[in-house]
Each structure stands twice: as structure tokens, then as C-alpha cells.
Hints:
mainly alpha; disordered C terminus
Amino acid sequence: MTPPHQTPRPTPAKPTRWAADTVSMLREGARLRLDYTPTSLWSLDRLIAEIRRENPPHEAIATTLRGFGAYAGEVLVRQAGAVWEEAYGGCRVRTADGRLWDPVEEARLCFEGEGSLRLLCWDALRGVGEGDGTQLH
């Protein structure tokens, strides 16, 4: 049991749930169908750019961004044989080549105009930035 003063650490099952919730939310609310393919991440990058133009405070959309990042992570899990794991105080995706990726952080960066879920996935699938498995992307 987690002491009351500590936040429970996420488990790898949580990002999978966040991704599924995002797919449902966007299908119902925005009529956007996500199919867990790298191509679908174009839609999320565009949607994040639209949200950014509205200039909401980060706190107001943090949960939404977390879901978008989890969805991008699930794309890697399904397309690259990656796995979710707990690392650096949160959930990250480790690809088969040992590299560690943080798609939830990438969604936040995308909101700030500095990242791209599509490019993160492209890098992970193309093997760009080969490392020894200890580098966080």
C-alpha cells in the first residue's frame, strides 16, 4: 500500500488504458478514428497544434496530453514489439533494440511546439539514434 503522502507509481497497464480511453474519447467527441498505426499520429500532432492555438493552461489539458502520449506509446508497442516499463519515475516504452522512449513527455513537448509524436514514432521505428539502451529519447 502506498503511504498517503506519496503518489502511487504508474504501472505499465495504465498507459494501455489511457491509450484506449483516448481512442474512445476521440472517436465519440471529435469523430476521429485512431487505428494504432504510425500514420494516425499525424492526426494527433495536428490536434495538439489546434489545442495549442487555443492557448489553454497546461494543467487544463495535462490528462489529455498524457492520453495522447500513451496512444503514441501503444503504437510503438503494436508496431515495433516494444514494451511499457516503469523507468525514471514513470512509464516509458522500450523498443526491441533496448532504447527507451518517453511518448507522454513528447506529447507535452508537442503542445509546447517542440515535439512530434509522429517523428518520435518514426525515429523509434527507423532505428534513428542507435544507443546502448540507457539513453532516454
